[in-house]
Every structure is written in structure tokens, then in C-alpha cells.
């Protein structure tokens, strides 16, 4: 019995359409109460024809149930159920005494069923059909009373009416109770969804408010120090100091924007890791170098313990691992300003099997710590313990959410221990394949590629961006030609000799002819060398679909603005080596 109840509960709570659930409720309740009716009729010696017809009804119910649930033909089963009710109710009407019986109640239920079990125009068609058939049966019973089989005694008549009222009432009550319960559950889900949306809206509103302040803070520094540097051009030391602060503020502003883009990718489900081989020791060193200025500005010390790592070369997602460590150390820097002078990064390795180790990254500080209340929601997007204006600590409230998502995408774990006012300890554990490389293989990363003597065509409509890109590429040894849109780039390639350009840096969003169209045109040039010139997209469009579109149109690489020397070197090397 418990298994039956579990089965009933499972299909009632399933994601099947409401009409199918109502059909199941009707069939189950009709089967149960009709069976009682047949037994009672048999005991009271009711007309055998009535018992036979009722038994046929009961026998057909399991067939309709199987058709709806096992064969997944719920609408067909509902229509068949209604038609069977209409066909079988008519003879029962005549055999049960016509108007002097309880079949009028059954007729009423038959009229209600199309609206409960079927959607759309079919319900209206079935209603009209049943109404016509039942009306015809009533008229015939009045006009030709000889076709009506009288029940007999008043006791049997009363029993038939009471029985009909009980069965139909029970069936309709079952449907009503289910409908009410279903409505309450749906209403509860809607309210929960509403509260979730409300909370998300409030969080995003707070986020936008914070972002307005957080973006203006580095922008104010960039504009302010640019003004000071311009006024004091004769003092080289002051100018260099201003430029350092402008660069720091610009990098921070970029990190804010990157956080938003990363969160957009996560919300779209675009969080697939890109596994590559990397030198973990060098990665840690590069992170330390990158954060060195920020650490020194806050009068802090980053203590790195790498002594418990046996294998430096591992396979993981370099970008995600770097983001995890940088985010957590950056948080430690923010919340250690006035509390402590030291931050610890401890990396250790626990060999599990051949070529597989568990790498543990522990970032610990003695700073402000995290309150118990905020610990419950610290990994939720847009959440911050205090806004930047009250705490003096700026940020998007996305760093920990992005960090947790990155850890989970790498099948790792993140744990946090913290006491408010005493510091915080984050522990990241990742399983990574490790490799034993030869000394020659270890030095592969240091191989340099000279760009001297190579010629590049830079396609950019914005004059400032064109100047920046050109000067960066010239610093790397390139001879640079410049054009301002895709059509000019196409004509430049068409007019030049086959071997003039080694590379094209192509902006995407341009007037006259955009980067995608220009690339397609170049790829269609009949001259083999010209059509195969490597093209690297140079754009502010940073979403995955933009990168996919660039590759589909024939581009070989992709660099996201603002341009960084490291990314230019890395992508240029890759594209030139491949081509």
C-alpha cells in the first residue's frame, strides 16, 4: 500500500502537465469509488445490466491510465476517457430508471470533464457533443418510456441517487482538493521566486550604487594624476610616480569590468575550463610580481611558502587558477590595511596516484575577518559586508562568487575559516595531473620570438587606440602600417605585394566595413599568400560569442582591449608560430 501511495505522490508532484495530473486523479478516484459502487449494487441485487456496464467502466480505467502515463499519450487518454463516459453513461441511464435515478449527476460530471481534462477547442467540441448526446437520451426517455428500465422500489431509487451523489461528489472533491493543493504549491513557488527576484534586484541595485562609487574612485585617480603629471612635466620623479598611480588605477578599473564580464559568463553557464600545461612555480612568481606594487603601497608583506611542492608542471586552467589566487590575495590586501602587516600564501602537494596530486593553496591574513552573518552569503553575487563608502574598501561584490565558481568548475573545493576582527583563512584544494619534464622542456616557455623585420597592418578607427597599438607594436620591432576601417584594410592587402604583411591587427567595430566583413573579404582574395595573412582581432567585445564569431569569419587570434604588452606578445607568438 505504501508503494502505491508513493507512486501516486510521485506522479502528482511530477513536472507533467496539469491536465495529465487531473486525469490521473480522476481515473484513480473513479476506479476506487466505482468498485465500491459495483460491490454495493451486487449486494443490493441491482439490475445485472447496470453492474455489467459499471464493471466495463472499471476495466477500461487501467487501460486509460497506462495510455496516459506509460505510453505518454495523456491527451488521447483524456479524450478516450470522456468518450467512454459518454457512451457508457447513456445505457446506464436507460437501465437505471431514466429520470428517476441518479444518472443525471453522472451526466453533469460528463459535461464538466472536457473542461478539466482537455485544453483548447477540443474541450468545447467534446462538451457540445456530450450535451447533445445526453439531451437526446433524456428526450428519448420521455418520448419513449418503454425503453426505460424501472429500478423498482423507492429504496433502490434512493440508494442509486445517494450512491451517485457520493461517488461523483468524492471524485470531484478529489479533483478540487488536488487543484487547491496544486494552486497553493504553485503560489508558494511564485512567492519564493518573487522574493528571490526581489532580493536579487535589491542586491543589484546596491551593486550598481557601489559600482558608481567604485568606478569613479579609480577614474578620479586617473584624471587627477594625469592632470598633475601634465602640470609637472619638468619633475621626472613626480611624473613617474603619477604614471605608476595611473597605471595601478587603470588596472583596478579593468579588474572591475572583468569581474562583471566573468559573472555574466557564469550566469549564462559558460564556465567550461580550458586545461593547459603550466609551470605552477612560475605562475605563483608572476602573481607575486603582479601584486607587488599593491602590496607595497599598503605597507604589507606577502610570505610565500612553496617548499612542499614536488612537481612544478601541472595541467589545469591557467586563467581560472590565476584568478582564484589573485582574487583571494587581493581580498586579503583590502582587509589587512589597518590590521596586520603580513599575508601568507602556502602551496603544498599531496601525491594521490601516479601523475595525479592534490594541490592545496592556503591564503591567510590577520585582518578584519568575516562576521558570522556574512559568512552565510559571502559567495553570493553582488554581496558585500559593507558598502565601500562606509568601509572604505572598494569592490564589486563579485570576487568571491567568481572564485567559488572557478574552483567548482575545476572540480575542487574551497573552505573558509574566519573570526571577525582576527583574520581569515581560505583553503583551495584541486586535483591536477603533474608532469616530470626534462630541463630542455622546462625552458620552452623562455624561447623568444623576434618581431624585427616583420610588417603589420593595424586596422583601427579610433585615433587614440590606433596610436597606442602602433607604438606598442613598434616597440616590439614591427614595421607598422595604419588604416582606419575594414575596406581600407582590404584595399591595402589587394594593392600590396604578396609577402609584404606578416600579420594584421583588426579592430571589429568600425564604420564603412567592420572587422568581420573585412576578414571575409581578405580570405576570399584569389592570391594564396594574401588570403592567408594571419589576422588577430583587437576589440573591446569580450564575450564568448564574439570570440566564436571572429573565429568563424576567419580570424586567427583574439586580443581584448585594453591592450597589454604581455597579451600582444603571447598572441602574436602563437599566431605566427601556427601560421
The largest pleated sheet is described as: 7 strands, mixed
Number of domains: 4
Broad structural category: alpha/beta
Number of strand elements: 12
Helix content: 55-70%
Through-space gap between termini:
71 Å
Residue windows where pLDDT falls under 50 for at least 5 positions: 387-392, 439-448
Described by the principal axes of the CA atoms, the overall outline is elongated
Number of helices: 20
Mean pLDDT: 80
- Oligomeric state of the chains in view: single chain
Q: What is the radius of gyration?
A: 38 Å
Strand content bin? 5-15%
Report on this model:
The protein is α/β, with parallel strands linked by helices and 579 residues long. The chain folds into four domains: 2-193, no CATH class; 206-267, Signal transduction histidine kinase, dimerisation/phosphotransfer (DHp) domain (Helix Hairpins, Orthogonal Bundle), CATH 1.10.287; 276-438, 2-Layer Sandwich (Heat Shock Protein 90); 448-578, Rossmann fold (3-Layer(aba) Sandwich), CATH 3.40.50.2300. Helices cover 60% and strands 14% of the residues. It contains 20 helices and twelve strands. It has helices at 2-12, 18-43, 48-69, 74-95, 103-117, 121-143, 154-231, 236-267, 280-297, 318-334, 372-375, 388-391, 399-409, 439-442, 463-475, 486-495, 515-523, 528-531, 544-552, 565-578; strands spanning 276-279, 301-308, 313-316, 342-353, 356-365, 413-419, 423-435, 455-459, 479-483, 503-506, 535-539, 557-560. The strands form two sheets. Strands 1, 2, 3, 4, 5, 6 and 7 form a seven-stranded mixed beta sheet that branches. α5 packs antiparallel against α6 (121-143) and α8 (236-267) crosses α13. The longest helix has 78 residues, at 154-231. The chain is elongated. Residues 387-392 and 439-448 have low confidence and may be disordered.
Amino acid at each position: 500500500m505504501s508503494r502505491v501511495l508513493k507512486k501516486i505522490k510521485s506522479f502528482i508532484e511530477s513536472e507533467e502537465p496539469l491536465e495529465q495530473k487531473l486525469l490521473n486523479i480522476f481515473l484513480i478516484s473513479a476506479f476506487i469509488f466505482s468498485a465500491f459502487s459495483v460491490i454495493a449494487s451486487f449486494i443490493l441485487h441491482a439490475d445485472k445490466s447496470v453492474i455489467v456496464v459499471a464493471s466495463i467502466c472499471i476495466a477500461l480505467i487501467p487501460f486509460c491510465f497506462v495510455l496516459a502515463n506509460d505510453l505518454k499519450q495523456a491527451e488521447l487518454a483524456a479524450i478516450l476517457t470522456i468518450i467512454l463516459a459518454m457512451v457508457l453513461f447513456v445505457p446506464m441511464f436507460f437501465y437505471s430508471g431514466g429520470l428517476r435515478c441518479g444518472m443525471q449527476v453522472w451526466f453533469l460530471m460528463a459535461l464538466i470533464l472536457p473542461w478539466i481534462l482537455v485544453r483548447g477547442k477540443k474541450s468545447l467540441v467534446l462538451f457540445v457533443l456530450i450535451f447533445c448526446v445526453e439531451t437526446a437520451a433524456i428526450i428519448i426517455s420521455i418520448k419513449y418510456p418503454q425503453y426505460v428500465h424501472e429500478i423498482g422500489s423507492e429504496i433502490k431509487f434512493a440508494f442509486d441517487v445517494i450512491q451517485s451523489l457520493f461517488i461523483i461528489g468524492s471524485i470531484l472533491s478529489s479533483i478540487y482538493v488536488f487543484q487547491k493543493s496544486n494552486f497553493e504549491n504553485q503560489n508558494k513557488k511564485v512567492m519564493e521566486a518573487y522574493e528571490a527576484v526581489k532580493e536579487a534586484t535589491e542586491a543589484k541595485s546596491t551593486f550598481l550604487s557601489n559600482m558608481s562609487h567604485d568606478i569613479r574612485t579609480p577614474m578620479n585617480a586617473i584624471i587627477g594624476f594625469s592632470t598633475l603629471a601634465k602640470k609637472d612635466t619638468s619633475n621626472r620623479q613626480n611624473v613617474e610616480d603619477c604614471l605608476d598611480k595611473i597605471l595601478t588605477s587603470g588596472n583596478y578599473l579593468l579588474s572591475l569590468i572583468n569581474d562583471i564580464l566573468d559573472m555574466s559568463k557564469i550566469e549564462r553557464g559558460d564556465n567550461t575550463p580550458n586545461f593547459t600545461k603550466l609551470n605552477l612555480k612560475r605562475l605563483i612568481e608572476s602573481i607575486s610580481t603582479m601584486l607587488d606594487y599593491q602590496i607595497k603601497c599598503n605597507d604589507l608583506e606577502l610570505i610565500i611558502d612553496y617548499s612542499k611542492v614536488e612537481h612544478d608542471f601541472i595541467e589545469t586552467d591557467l586563467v581560472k587558477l590565476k584568478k582564484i589566487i589573485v582574487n583571494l590575495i587581493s581580498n586579503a590586501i583590502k582587509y589587512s590595511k589597518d590590521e596586520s602587516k603580513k599575508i601568507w600564501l602556502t602551496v603544498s602537494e599531496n601525491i594521490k596516484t601516479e601523475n595525479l596530486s592534490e594541490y592545496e593553496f592556503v591564503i591567510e591574513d590577520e585582518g578584519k575577518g568575516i562576521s558570522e552573518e556574512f559568512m552565510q552569503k559571502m559567495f553570493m553575487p553582488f554581496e558585500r559586508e559593507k558598502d565601500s563608502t562606509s568601509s572604505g574598501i572598494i569592490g564589486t561584490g563579485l570576487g568571491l562568487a567568481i572564485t567559488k565558481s572557478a574552483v567548482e568548475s575545476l572540480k575542487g573545493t574551497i573552505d573558509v575559516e574566519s573570526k571577525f576582527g582576527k583574520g581569515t583563512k581560505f583553503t583551495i584544494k584541486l586535483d591536477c595531473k603533474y608532469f616530470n619534464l626534462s630541463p630542455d622542456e622546462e625552458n620552452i616557455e623562455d624561447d623568444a620570438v623576434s618581431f624585427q623585420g616583420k610588417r603589420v597592418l593595424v586596422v583601427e578607427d579610433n585615433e587614440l587606440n590606433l596610436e597606442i597599438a602602433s607604438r606598442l607594436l613598434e616597440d616590439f620591432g614591427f614595421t607598422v602600417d595604419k588604416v582606419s576601417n575594414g575596406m581600407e584594410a582590404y584595399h591595402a592587402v589587394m594593392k600590396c605585394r604578396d609577402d609584404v604583411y606578416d600579420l594584421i591587427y583588426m579592430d571589429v567595430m568600425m564604420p564603412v566595413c567592420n572587422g568581420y566583413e573585412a576578414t571575409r573579404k581578405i580570405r576570399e582574395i584569389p592570391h594564396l599568400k594574401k588570403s592567408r595573412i594571419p589576422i588577430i582581432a583587437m576589440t573591446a567585445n569580450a564575450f564568448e560569442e564574439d570570440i566564436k564569431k571572429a573565429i568563424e569569419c576567419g580570424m586567427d587570434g583574439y586580443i581584448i582591449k585594453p591592450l597589454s604588452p604581455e597579451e600582444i606578445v603571447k598572441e602574436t607568438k602563437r599566431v605566427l608560430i601556427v601560421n
